[in-house]
Design brief:
Elements (H helix, E strand, L loop, with lengths): L6 E4 L3 H13 L5 E4 L5 H7 L4 E4 L8 H11 L4 E6 L4 H9 L4 E4 L4 H29 L17 H13 L6 E4 L6 H12 L5 E5 L5 H9 E2 L11 E2 L1 H4 L4 E5 L6 H13 L1 E2 L8 E2 L3 E6 L3 H6 L5 H7 L2 E4 L9 H16 L6 E2 L1 H8 L6 H15 L4 E2 L5 H13 L16 H15 L4 H8 L3 H15 L7
Parallel strand pairs: 1-2, 1-3, 3-4, 4-5, 6-13, 6-14, 7-10, 10-13, 15-16
Antiparallel strand pairs: 8-9, 11-12
Helix pairs in contact: 5-6, 6-7, 10-12, 13-15, 17-18, 18-19
């Protein structure tokens, strides 16, 4: 991954380079390359992912204006900032015409230097992000599929999530991940970390239920003697996650007071440990996740609007499993293999009728629920094939819960892809048997067929359920 915020200072006077480097470092810009010979600049740009060049105009060998033109020809994406003692309108106009980001005259105010370089770095980041997004929409292939190797998915909706995650991973800004419980929000957070700061810390924390004091101590740490029992200073999770990612799960449950402190952390990039007088710089990227509807919470004044907008600079929504049914067979087979391995069993086949039944199940618990169902069924299965019999109780309970929550108020919910007519017929028979509590006469009346006809169908279904399914 590219080194973030890399600045090249080019000036033939070492004292000037020392001064600029000290000013930028004090302002939080620490990735700096020094160069005293203008002839070496193009070689450095070819080797290093430089974002911004600070360029003097009066230098031996190659002048600043000549070098500026060469830089913009060979590396148009690099932002070039002119810092010179030449205070003439013609020089400034010509440099801006050649593509300079700004033109500063020595001596430069330290605050202005830091703010101008920061703006140039932000412009470079926005251009890079725009390029990444543009490329991701033009290509269906992932650039770094290994970052998502821990997630089993082939549905186009999930692949779009992966592509967007790749595009925004290196921006450094906060990411908000939303989705129902069990959809894999932390897995996406870990993929973002692998794409942006793989060798740095990934520090997860569930903030649900933390009161304000515990939240502050957990994230920001404390000084010795900050409160009764604070015998030693303790670093908070923000410090532990320095240069890496701080993952805040269930952010929607954060108290109003803690929301203010988190806003300061994100907005000012600093925090105050308990008992401290001076703030410390925050060097961790914040990734937040929630199953709550934060927009609705914002509208009801339950979640700060300013914090919401700071968090969702990048917003990743993970679709529930019922919206990506293409993944259900893939996930089912993956979990069967995993369960069989954990239980020291040979891999089991999955009956086609079971896959058809799972495709129309609402999965209120999403992928986590499917995994639990598969592991339970594998542990109970005595044959070589998983059938609907092993899932009947769990599926019926789940259907009842869905109806209680209003999820089954619609007349019919069709999965994508549609089941065949034969599969739909079998599912209808199963539903009738369930609703009649196993009474075939009543079930036949519900279906509008005779009891012998229903009995014949049930015998055929029982035989088919024992046929092994392709396990590819």
């Amino acid at each position: 991954m590219p080194i973030p915020n890399l600045v090249l200072i080019v000036d033939d006077e070492p004292a000037t380079v020392d001064s600029f480097e000290l000013t930028l470092t004090s302002g939080g810009i620490s990735n700096i390359i020094r160069c005293h010979d203008s002839r070496e600049v193009l070689g450095i740009l070819a080797r290093e992912p430089v974002d911004v060049v600070l360029l003097d105009l009066v230098m031996p060998h190659i002048t600043g204006e000549e070098l500026l033109e060469q830089i913009k020809d060979a590396h148009a994406e690099v932002e070039a900032l002119i810092i010179t003692g030449i205070d003439t309108v013609d020089s400034a106009v010509n440099c801006m015409r050649l593509g300079a980001f700004d033109y500063l005259v020595k001596p430069v105010d330290e605050n202005r230097l830091v703010s101008t370089v920061s703006r140039a770095l932000e412009m470079r980041r926005l251009k890079r992000e725009n390029t990444n997004l543009h490329s991701s929409f033009l290509s269906d292939a992932l650039d770094y599929p290994e970052a998502f190797s821990h997630m089993v998915a082939q549905d186009p909706r999930m692949l779009r999530v992966f592509k967007y995650a790749e595009a925004v991973a290196t921006s450094g800004h906060p990411v908000l991940i939303t989705g129902e419980s069990g959809t894999g929000k932390e897995l996406i957070a870990r993929a973002l970390h692998a794409l942006s700061a793989k060798d740095k810390p990934f520090v997860p924390v569930n903030v649900a239920g933390l009161d304000d004091t515990v939240f502050s101590d957990t994230l920001f740490g404390h000084r010795k003697g900050a409160f009764t029992g604070a015998m030693e200073a303790r670093a908070g999770l923000v410090e532990q996650a320095a240069n890496g990612c701080l993952f805040l799960d269930e952010i929607g449950d954060l108290s109003p007071t803690s929301q203010v402190k988190l806003l300061r952390l994100i907005q000012e990039r600093e925090y105050l440990p308990l008992g401290a007088d001076m703030p410390k710089p925050a060097e961790a990227r914040v990734i937040a996740a929630t199953h709550c509807d934060l927009e609705a919470a914002r509208d009801k004044k339950l979640f700060r609007a300013d914090l919401f907008y700071r968090l969702c600079i990048h917003h990743i929504r993970i679709p529930p499993l019922r919206e990506r049914t293409d993944d259900i067979p893939l996930l089912a087979r993956h979990f069967v293999r995993k369960a069989a391995g954990d239980l020291n069993r040979k891999p089991l086949a999955i009956s086609p009728r079971l896959l058809a039944r799972l495709a129309v199940y609402p999965f209120p618990g999403n992928v986590r629920e499917l995994e639990s169902m598969i592991f339970d069924a594998v542990s109970k299965c005595s044959g070589n094939t998983l059938t609907t019999d092993a899932f009947r109780e769990r599926l019926n309970v789940g259907d009842a819960m869905a109806r209680t929550n209003g999820a089954a108020n619609e007349a019919i919910s069709f999965p994508d892809p549609l089941p065949t007519l034969a599969q739909a017929s079998d599912l209808l028979v199963e539903e009738a048997i369930r609703r009649s509590n196993g009474k075939q006469t009543l079930a036949a009346r519900m279906l509008g067929i005779s009891q012998p006809a229903l009995s014949k169908r049930l015998k055929r279904m029982a035989v088919e359920s024992e046929l092994p399914d392709s396990y590819s």
